[in-house]
Amino acid sequence: MKVNYIAFALAITAILIFPQDKSVAKQGSGAKKELTQDRVCRIENAAQAGTECRSGDVFLYLPVQTTNTKLPVIVSALFCDFDRSITTSPESVSCIFTDKRRAQWKEYGVKLP
After folding, report:
1. Tell me, what's the pLDDT at 24?
2. Cα 28 from chain centroid?
3. Cβ pair 33, 26 in contact under 8 A
4. How far is the C-alpha of 80 from the C-alpha of 95, rounded, in Å?
5. What digits encode the pLDDT tens for the residues 36-90?
6. Which residues have CB under 8 Å from 72's CB, separation 6+?
7. Residue 31 pLDDT more than 90?
8. Residue 113's CB: how many other CB atoms inside 10 A?
9. CA distance 56 to 64
10. Beta bridge partners of 43
11. d(C-alpha 78, C-alpha 75), whole Å
């Protein structure tokens, strides 16, 4: 089995660099939301992220093949929580998944649950 060392390094880096504080302030309020980071949602096709991942998951986008160099930026914009660290390479993304921009998913071909 061929190991993708860049993808593996991204996954480990993402897990290690995210803040260890288990709570995060909800946007626009003083309430706290639990962020456990106990599940990695690995996606090869960005269109499936909406049905496979849940808010708070460690999101790991590792496409089998990509010819679109803008895809990691688009994926980050659609699915990453910008209040948390985002790690990218030319082909992949690791971040904390959010559905905050769910209203825009359909125009990018993302399947809705």
Report:
1. 41
2. 22
3. yes
4. 6
5. 778 999 999 999 999 999 999 999 999 988 778 888 999 999 999 999 999 998 8
6. 61, 88, 89, 90, 91, 92, 93
7. no
8. 9
9. 24
10. 61
11. 5
